[in-house]
Inverse folding.
């Protein structure tokens, strides 16, 4: 089939009206520019349509990613490329890169980051969450304490079913700082219900500073509840241990040394 060479340098008004009616803002905005460029290059009408459609798709994908990142409510921007793997030499970088492909979400598997405070658990959890958003998954960030409070408020307002429906709508939930603040009996029961609801339905990324043997203290010293929870949580799980010194402590020490340890007035 012989392709006809594009011979227009601007987009007809009627075509622009069609782009507007079809809600294709990028095609509407770029139509004249692409027409002028392809006219100079003696491009075809088929190529003109292809390039406009490609620009529209790219813009829509970028917009969708931006919306997912905003809805996830990540407290800060963290990327895997910014992580200091040298400071945590026992951490397998390749394993983290593999996890960033997010196949664990399709498998409804979980990731648990363990380690002392300041070793980068939250950094990596957020970084994986952002990668998930870019790949089309719907993610949400909570602190363990914040989620427990959210359940408490939902129970008081009799909106627990609504909250659980929202939780089921996510592909990935990041639960940060599990174990940093002890929970009362109600908080422990709420989190147990949350984990039970997510089991094989929603993937989780959890950060904690406690070994599994100390988890009963998170859940009101109820070993039976903790055992049932761990049984579900570790059924499909990747456990990533971060062993090293606190990044925050290193930074604070470096700043102090840089200032020459000057006494405050």
């Amino acid at each position: 089939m012989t392709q006809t060479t594009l011979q227009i340098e601007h987009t007809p008004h009627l075509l622009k009206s069609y782009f507007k009616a079809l809600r294709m803002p990028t095609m509407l905005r770029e139509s004249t520019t692409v027409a002028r460029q392809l006219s100079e290059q003696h491009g075809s009408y088929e190529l003109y349509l292809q390039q406009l459609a490609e620009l529209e798709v790219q813009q829509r994908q970028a917009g969708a990613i931006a919306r997912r990142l905003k809805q996830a409510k990540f407290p800060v921007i963290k990327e895997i490329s910014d992580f200091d793997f040298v400071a945590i030499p026992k951490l397998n970088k390749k394993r983290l890169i593999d996890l960033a492909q997010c196949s664990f979400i399709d498998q409804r598997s979980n990731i648990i980051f363990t380690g002392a405070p300041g070793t980068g658990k939250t950094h990596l959890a957020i970084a994986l969450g952002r990668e998930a958003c870019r790949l089309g998954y719907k993610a949400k960030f909570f602190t363990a304490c914040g989620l427990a409070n959210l359940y408490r408020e939902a129970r008081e307002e009799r909106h627990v079913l609504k909250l659980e429906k929202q939780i089921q709508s996510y592909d990935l939930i990041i639960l940060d700082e599990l174990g940093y603040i002890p929970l009362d009996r109600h908080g422990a029961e709420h989190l147990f219900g949350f984990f039970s609801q997510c089991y094989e339905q929603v993937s989780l990324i959890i950060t904690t500073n406690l070994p599994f043997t100390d988890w009963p203290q998170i859940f009101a010293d109820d070993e039976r509840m903790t055992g049932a929870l761990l049984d579900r949580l570790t059924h499909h799980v990747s456990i990533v241990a971060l062993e090293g010194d606190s990044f925050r402590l290193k930074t604070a020490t470096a700043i102090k040394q840089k200032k020459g340890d000057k006494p405050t007035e």
Remarks:
- The first helix runs from residue 13 to 21.
- The first strand starts at residue 110 and ends at 115.
- Strands lie at 110-115, 139-143, 172-178, 203-208, 237-242.
